[in-house]
Specification:
Blueprint: E1 2-6, E2 9-13, H1 20-24, H2 30-44, E3 50-51, E4 55-60, E5 63-72, E6 76-82, E7 91-96, E8 99-112, E9 115-122, H3 137-169
Antiparallel strand pairs: 1-2, 3-5, 4-5, 4-7, 5-6, 6-9, 7-8, 8-9
Amino acid sequence: MTLVMRSSQPKVADGRGEGMSALRNRPGNIEARFDAVSRPMLEKRQSPRRKMVLPVKVSIDRVTHLAHTVDITNTGARLGALRTQLQPGMIISLQRGSHKAKFRVAWIRQLAPNEVQAGVECLEPQNNFWGVDLCDPEGESKKDMQKFLSLISDRSKSTSRQKRVSEVASPKKRF
């Protein structure tokens, strides 16, 4: 059972009577407006984004600026800390370590008078441009978490052993 807001009164859609598609297409329905706005962006995205802050050098007309990624994909990134003027469609060069590639500015968001974020797409795809394996982000997170838990567990066991050894070596005197 789903609760759908229509104007100011809730309406329950339970499959009897009006179908969900009829409810979604009503003029006052917030969900329908949200779906219409969010779906096109999801359909355009070719690969999942992964939040990652990596330093990059941005070269525009032979002038180099320092910036960082906010999130990355195999085909592009969202850049932050840009302190130069960019325009959608501009071709820029990014350098990450020894890797260099040309990117097209897809969009720009002004964060402050002197700072912008930009979405960029790679024009020269390279293997592992970012120096990060983006194949299985969930699998990587699980592996990292397992390593972390194992490390904590090992430390906990080590601390417990040390405590027991010190208790045996120096028993408390009772008077």
